[in-house]
């Protein structure tokens, strides 16, 4: 699955009965979880919420990182270390009306009408 195959628009998100809120990506990291057999997990943490975590990414970690950089247009000619990806404006998708206790189920570009559901993003493999 490719990034372009899973891109949604704000209209799609609202039609699905979900809501969108502005936020900031605080950190992007790779967590290696020992009790899951040293499974690498790509993690995106936003202000007050983890918007992508808990997926086993052993088979597609490189593809996920590339898709994330492409979605947020994080391009620097000589490279951009993952550890430097901080304070990136974004928009988050929440279940339903996004009220207290709603789960974050996706994320998107702050200025462009490009969103992905986390469950779809986790399946990127090319």
Number of contiguous helices: 4
* Domain module tally: 1
- Per DSSP E runs of 2 or more residues, the count of β-strands stands at 6
Q: Estimate what percentage of residues fall within beta strands.
A: 25-35%
Order of helices and strands: HHEEEHEEEH
Overall geometry: globular
End-to-end CA span: 6 Å
Query: Could you describe the largest sheet, including whether it forms a barrel?
Result: 6 strands, antiparallel
Protein architecture, described:
This protein has 126 residues and is an alpha+beta fold. The protein has one domain. It has helices at residues 3-6, 10-15, 61-71, 118-121, and strands at residues 19-33, 39-46, 49-52, 88-94, 104-109, 115-117. Strands 3-2-1-4-5-6 form a six-stranded antiparallel β-sheet. The longest helix has 11 residues, at 61-71. The N and C termini lie close together (6 Å).
Task: Give the gist of this structure.
With 126 residues, the protein is of the alpha+beta class.
Key traits:
126 residues, alpha+beta, 6-stranded antiparallel sheet, 20% helix, globular
List the helices and strands and how they pair.
Layout: H1 3-6, H2 10-15, E1 19-33, E2 39-46, E3 49-52, H3 61-71, E4 88-94, E5 104-109, E6 115-117, H4 118-121
Antiparallel strand pairs: 1-2, 1-4, 2-3, 4-5, 5-6
């Amino acid at each position: 699955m490719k990034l372009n195959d899973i891109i949604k628009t704000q209209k799609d998100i609202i039609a699905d009965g979900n809501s969108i809120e502005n936020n900031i990506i605080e950190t992007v990291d790779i967590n290696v979880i020992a009790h899951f057999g040293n499974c690498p997990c790509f993690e995106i943490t936003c202000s007050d919420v983890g918007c992508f975590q808990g997926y086993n990414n052993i088979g597609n970690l490189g593809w996920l990182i590339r898709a994330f950089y492409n979605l947020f247009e994080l391009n620097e000619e000589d490279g951009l270390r993952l550890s430097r990806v901080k304070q990136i404006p974004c928009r988050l998708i929440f279940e339903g009306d996004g009220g207290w206790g709603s789960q974050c189920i996706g994320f998107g570009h702050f200025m462009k009408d490009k969103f992905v559901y986390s469950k779809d993003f986790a399946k990127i493999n090319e």
